[in-house]
Structure formats: structure tokens, C-alpha cells
Design brief:
The structure holds two protein chains of two kinds. In chain A, about 70% of the residues lie in helices and about 5% in strands. In chain A, a hairpin with a 2-residue loop joins strand 1 and strand 2. The N and C termini of chain A lie far apart (about 45 Å). By secondary structure, chain B is mainly alpha-helical. Chain B is about 65% helix and about 0% strand. In chain B, helix 3 packs parallel to helix 8 and helix 4 runs parallel beside helix 6. The chains are: A mainly alpha, B mainly alpha. Chains A and B meet through helix 4, helix 9 and helix 12 of A and helix 5, helix 6, helix 13 and helix 15 of B.
Chain lengths: ~300, ~425
């Protein structure tokens, strides 16, 4: 039986990890909600942002968090461009399938370019405060993990306020709910969809910077992220942001707890087991809305 | 819409209701069919005689790899081509077939080819629960499951070292230990060719069957197919299992040929992406589309391996090529070539859907040779759709006495927008 301190440590780490998962899954959910697009390249952009943070730290000598100033607007613009220039060209009838392939191609392209530019060597940011940790009832929590969680929480809160309190968020939610009806009441849905895509990609920029603080990165790392994220959005019910967030916290916590008896590798299987169980017994997801019924 | 009826691109297919002209088969049409047959024969001869003129064993082994890709891609096309469901996980099914064959030979001591057959069956059986979870809901979930399949199998086969050999890999004993290497390549080349032939034959049979018609109906409009009584879930599951079985056999044959399995390469999501790229590039609705795609992409992959070695450039090239195909040529090269052939060798025959009311009216006016050309739309036109009133793009399908090109096309797409 693991000690109480170890359990507490796992719970805290699981919640911190779950926060990051929640932010990233929220981005994926946005894409899916707006366009029914499964964005495979989301985690590739995550790694790209992490590389930007690493690069700005090692080459320019600035704190990795400062790279957010560049990467968030940059990713927003890339996202808008991606939606308006590439995804909008696909035929509506096969959009779901073809968009998967297109975003897959983008993911492979990013991985290849990262590998070409920075080689496959594993990279890690060495921070002055990287080793610092805080004692918490016998559990030791690294400061960088707290920063990463704080970043994710702030971004998620911003996203929530943006969606719930602003006119743009109102238009975005209307577009997600019923595109034609949204157009009828005068919403420029194409524009809103583009901006929504940009916001989704901006979450990857924030997540990637948070990730780079305490993780060793390499170009093919994104495959380790896309699987869990996909599982989260299916378990949460495709298209439901609160569902994705709840599933992210739950599965992150479960993964962290299962690492005690099973080890890190086997603990990852919890995502895939949850994915298969959800699809086999409750295909619309456990927290999901009506969107998942058909898609 | 992608769903211009198949009869346009595959006119020799008797299963598809072809809008055939009432006129007697015309010489140019026969020539076109002859050309198709000649191309097919040339392809078969080229494939079968390749070992005889391959300059060295390396080229022959590259030929085996390309043939392996051709079998895998054709197997993928059972699902991707017929139902339109895109799987990125077929690479993992092939890897599973390879590992199943290898483990049955190494651990259970089965003879190589018995192990291969059993492995094919095992992979097909494995596909049943996977397909059950993946195919119950539409679209996106299937892709997600297929990706998850690759990742979870990689995880299991890397970590479960006591059975699978883990990251050190698994050595599969050769089925013909006394053959020299070039001879070994030659034997497996023909084995792969036979498997390809069987896969193509089954694809062709399904394509002509009622079952195939149901699958294609799912591709065009799953809701309508279901409301017309097609058992959509059952059909999708059956074709997924067939596809998985062939994929497993190809993977197992690869294991027997190559003799060394590494989980990183066997359960690579990239393999699955290559298969999709090959099939799309060649044309998923065409029997030989995946084979043509495998030839192009497989040769390109070998070239990149030789020229650029370990750099990541092959990833960049794969990504760019896949994006270009998806954006600009989602129907593949074979339909494009077929269109070219039709343009020069066939009379202008097409679905009535491509004829506007204005053109129809002009044609009829010309046929009757009457003076009604000056009085606007003919009074007999029951739709009353004058070209001016409808902007000239009114579709003439509602016209009951349209010429012989009007053929009822069951399962043909409608023009109403898809639910997004």
C-alpha cells in the first residue's frame, strides 16, 4: 500500500497534468465544434510552441514564458490562415475525413521540419528555478509544474470568459450550435470560424510553452500527446468544452494514480481503455452534448 | 461533391448503372475498352516479369517492398474506397499480422505458412471488437480509434518485452533456410504477387456485388442508405474485418520475408499514412488505384531512403504530397486519366446532371430543326424552366422527355447540402 504522501503527490500531479490536458482538449473541441474537424496537427503545434520557447531561451536568453508574446499571436494567425486558406477548400461532404488527412499532413510536415532544423536530439530548458519545489503536506510539487498549471488555468479561464461573456463568444457558440441559423441572424460564420480556429491554435501555443518548462522535447513527441487528447475529447463527448475539461481532469488524475502500481508506460493505456469503453458503451461520450450523436 | 457517379469513371463496370447510349457500340468506345485491357495486360506482364530484368538483388528487394505496399494499400481500400471511412491505423494491423506470424513460429513452433494463415485469421478476429467500437458512430470516431490503435499497440509491443521481445525486436526464422538471398527475394516477390492478385479479385467481386452496392451507398449518404434498408453497421463491420484479414496476411508475409520485426516500424502511424496516400493518389474508387499509388509512392520512398538517408526530409515530402493530393486531387490520378481517355475516345456521353437546361434546350431545338429557336423555351417543356428564368443552371433531371442519357441512378448523390 503506497504511503499517504505518495498518494497525495500523485493526486496533485495528476490534477496539474489534467489542467494542461484540459486546455489542449478545449482547443481540439473548438475545432471539432466549429467545423467537425479532427485536428491531428494540434499536438504538433504544441511541440512547435515548445520548440519556440526552448529556442528563445537558449538562443536569445529570455525566459521561455516571454515567447508567449510572439507565439500566441503567431499561432492565432496561423490558425485563421489554416481554416480560411486550406480547410475551407475541402468539399463539405467529405470534410471530416479529408480534414483529418490534411491536418495529419501538416503534423508530419511540422515534425519533419523540426527534425530538419533542430535534429532529433532531445532538448530541455534549464531554468534557474527548474529544480525548486514546494512542500505540501509531505508531497513535493515542482514550481515549474505549478507555473504550467497556472498558465493553463489562466488560458482556460480566458477562453471561458471569451466564449460566455463577449459578443464574439456568443457568435462563436451560435456558429457551433447551428451554422445556418447563425448566418440567418447576421453572423459572418466564415469569419467567426476562422477566428475560432485561431483561438484553438492559440491554446496550443500556451500549452506548448507550459509543456516546455519541465519536459524533454523532441520532434516526434507529438504522437504521445495526440492519442490521450483524442481519447479525452471522445470521452468528454465530441464538441463539448466542459465535457472535455472534466474528462481531462479525470483521466489525468487516473493516469497519475495508476502510475504507482503500473509504472508510467502502462498507465498511459488508461486513455485508450477509456476511449474504447466509451465508444463501445456510450458513443456520445460521458459528458457530451447532442453533437456527438451523429459524428 | 466527390460523388459523381462511379459509372462515369469506370464505364466497364457492369454493377454500376451506366447511362449507355442507345446507339450501337461505337468504334471509339471499343477502342477505349481495348486500351484499358492492353494497359491491364501490360501491367500484369511488367509485374510478373520484374524479377527477370531486375538488375540486382537490391532492386528486387525494393520491388518486394513496393508489392507489399500494393497489397496493404489494396487491403486498406476495402474500407477506404467502398465506405469512405478513412483508417490511419492499417499500419498497425499489418504490424499485428507480422508479430502474430512471428510469435506463432517462434513461440508455438508452427510451420511458417500455417502460422501466416492463422495470423491472418487472428487479425481478422481482432478487428471485430475494434470495428464494433469504431464503427458504431460516424466519421470522426473511426479515425480517432484507428490512430489510437496504432499508439496502443506500439505501447503494448514495446513494453511487453517478455513475450514480444520489446524494443530489441523479434527475429522470425526464414521459411526457406537454404535459399540464397536473391532467390529468397524472388520467391517472396511471387508470393506477394499472388496475394495481391487475390486481394484485387476479392475487391473486384465485392465491387460487382449487392454487398458492394450497399457499401458504396454508405459512402455516398449513410442516412439514406440506412433508410433504404441497408444494414449499414453490419456491412461496415464485415468489410472492415475482410480488410483487416488481408492487411494481416500482408504483414505476416512481410515478417516471413524480412525476418526481423521492430515495434517502432511495425506500429508506425506513418505506415498507415503511406497506405492512405497511395490509395488516394491512385484513386480510391478504382480497382487498380492503390496499386498505381503504391508504385509511385513506394518508389519515391525508396528513392528518398537512398538519397537522403536518415534526415527527416522524407517526412516533409510525405506531408507536402499528402496535403497536395487531399487539396487538389482527392479522386486520384486514375479517374483523371480515365477522364482524359473519355475525352478523346468516347462520344460526349455523361450523366444528365452535367447538362444544363439551356444546353438541352438548344440541343433539342437543333434536333427538331424547327423555327422555335426564336421563341425562347419550347412550349412543351413541362418544367417551364427557361434558361433566363433559372440563370441557365437549372438541372434538367425533372424533364420527362429528356434524351436517352437520362438514366435512373440509384444511390446517386443528390445536390442538397450535407448536414455539417
Amino acid at each position: 500500500m503506497p504511503s499517504g504522501a505518495l498518494l497525495l503527490q500523485s493526486v496533485v500531479l495528476g490534477l496539474l497534468l489534467g489542467g494542461l490536458y484540459a486546455l489542449l482538449a478545449a482547443g481540439l473541441t473548438l475545432y471539432f465544434g466549429i467545423l467537425r474537424v479532427v485536428m491531428i496537427a494540434h499536438s504538433a503545434f504544441l511541440i512547435l510552441a515548445a520548440y519556440l520557447a526552448w529556442w528563445s531561451h537558449t538562443r536569445l536568453g529570455v525566459d521561455p514564458l516571454l515567447s508567449l508574446v510572439v507565439s500566441v499571436p503567431l499561432f492565432f494567425c496561423i490558425g485563421v490562415g489554416l481554416q480560411r486558406l486550406l480547410l475551407a477548400r475541402l468539399r463539405p461532404a467529405t470534410l471530416t475525413m479529408m480534414s483529418v488527412l490534411l491536418t495529419f499532413a501538416i503534423a508530419v510536415l511540422i515534425e519533419g521540419l523540426l527534425g530538419y532544423a533542430f535534429t532529433g536530439t532531445q532538448r530541455r530548458i534549464q531554468l534557474g528555478y527548474g529544480a525548486a519545489s514546494i512542500g505540501f503536506f509531505g508531497a513535493r510539487i515542482a514550481v515549474v509544474k505549478l507555473i504550467a498549471f497556472g498558465l493553463a488555468a489562466v488560458a482556460l479561464l480566458t477562453l471561458y470568459l471569451l466564449l460566455k461573456k463577449t459578443t464574439f463568444g456568443w457568435a462563436l457558440r451560435a456558429t457551433i450550435q447551428h451554422r445556418d441559423a447563425a448566418r440567418l441572424v447576421g453572423i459572418d460564420t466564415d469569419r467567426v470560424a476562422g477566428f475560432g480556429f485561431g483561438i484553438g491554435l492559440a491554446t496550443a501555443a500556451v500549452g506548448g510553452t507550459a509543456l516546455s518548462l519541465d519536459t524533454t522535447i523532441y520532434p516526434s513527441l507529438h504522437w504521445h500527446w495526440i492519442g490521450p487528447l483524442m481519447a479525452i475529447i471522445v470521452v468528454g463527448g465530441l464538441g463539448s468544452v466542459p465535457g472535455a475539461a472534466a474528462a481531462a481532469m479525470l483521466l489525468g488524475l487516473l493516469q497519475s494514480l495508476l502510475q504507482i502500481p503500473m509504472g508510467t508506460t502502462w498507465a498511459q493505456t488508461v486513455f485508450y481503455l477509456a476511449l474504447f469503453a466509451t465508444l463501445a458503451f456510450r458513443p456520445q461520450g460521458f459528458f457530451g452534448g447532442r453533437l456527438a450523436q451523429r459524428f | 461533391m466527390p460523388s459523381v457517379s462511379d459509372s462515369l469513371t469506370r464505364p466497364a463496370d457492369p454493377a454500376a448503372p451506366v447511362a449507355s447510349p442507345a446507339a450501337a457500340p461505337d468504334g471509339r468506345q471499343r477502342l477505349g475498352r481495348l486500351l484499358s485491357g492492353a494497359a491491364l495486360l501490360a501491367l500484369a506482364v511488367a509485374v510478373l516479369s520484374f524479377p527477370a530484368w531486375a538488375p540486382n538483388p537490391y532492386v528486387l528487394s525494393a520491388g518486394v517492398v513496393v508489392l507489399n505496399y500494393a497489397v496493404l494499400s489494396t487491403s486498406w481500400n476495402f474500407v477506404g474506397g467502398f465506405t469512405g471511412y478513412i483508417s490511419l491505423g492499417h499500419g498497425a494491423l499489418a504490424g499485428l499480422g507480422g508479430y502474430a506470424t512471428g510469435l506463432l513460429v517462434v513461440r508455438a513452433g508452427l510451420p511458417s505458412f500455417v502460422a501466416l494463415a492463422v495470423a491472418g485469421l487472428l487479425v481478422a478476429a481482432f478487428a471485430v471488437p475494434v470495428g464494433y467500437a469504431a464503427l458504431r458512430v460516424r466519421g470522426a470516431s473511426f479515425v480517432i480509434v484507428s490512430i489510437a490503435l496504432v499508439l496502443i499497440l506500439l505501447l503494448v509491443f514495446q513494453s511487453w518485452a517478455s513475450v514480444t521481445g520489446g524494443s530489441r525486436g523479434l527475429v522470425v526464422p526464414r521459411p526457406f533456410p537454404d535459399l540464397l538471398r536473391p532467390e529468397h527475394h524472388r520467391v517472396f516477390y511471387y508470393l506477394f504477387a499472388v496475394l495481391l492478385g487475390v486481394a484485387l479479385l476479392v475487391w473486384w467481386l465485392i465491387d460487382r456485388s449487392r454487398f458492394g452496392l450497399g457499401l458504396k451507398a454508405i459512402r455516398e449518404d449513410e442516412d439514406k442508405a440506412e433508410s433504404l434498408g441497408t444494414p449499414t453497421f453490419g456491412y461496415k463491420l464485415v468489410v472492415f474485418v475482410v480488410s483487416a484479414g488481408f492487411t494481416g496476411l500482408a504483414g505476416g508475409l512481410y515478417a516471413l520475408w524480412f525476418g526481423d520485426l521492430d515495434p517502432v516500424f511495425q506500429f508506425s502511424i506513418l505506415t498507415g499514412a503511406y497506405l492512405v496516400l497511395m490509395a488516394l493518389l491512385g484513386g480510391v474508387r478504382h480497382l487498380f488505384g492503390p496499386v498505381v499509388g503504391a508504385l509511385v509512392v513506394g518508389v519515391a520512398l525508396e528513392y528518398f531512403k537512398v538519397e537522403f538517408g536518415d534526415t527527416q526530409l522524407h517526412l516533409v515530402a510525405t506531408g507536402v504530397l499528402l496535403a497536395l493530393v487531399v487539396l487538389f486531387m482527392p479522386d486520384g490520378v486514375l479517374p483523371a486519366l480515365g477522364g482524359l481517355r473519355d475525352r478523346y475516345l468516347r462520344p460526349a456521353q455523361a450523366s444528365i446532371r452535367e447538362v444544363t437546361a439551356a444546353e438541352l434546350w438548344a440541343r433539342r431545338a437543333a434536333e427538331s430543326g424547327s423555327t422555335s429557336t426564336v421563341t425562347g423555351p419550347a412550349p412543351t417543356d413541362p418544367a417551364g424552366s427557361g434558361p433566363a428564368a433559372s440563370g441557365g443552371v437549372e438541372r434538367a433531371t425533372a424533364d420527362p422527355d429528356a434524351p436517352e442519357h437520362v438514366a435512373a441512378e440509384p444511390g446517386a448523390p443528390t445536390t442538397e447540402p450535407e448536414a455539417r
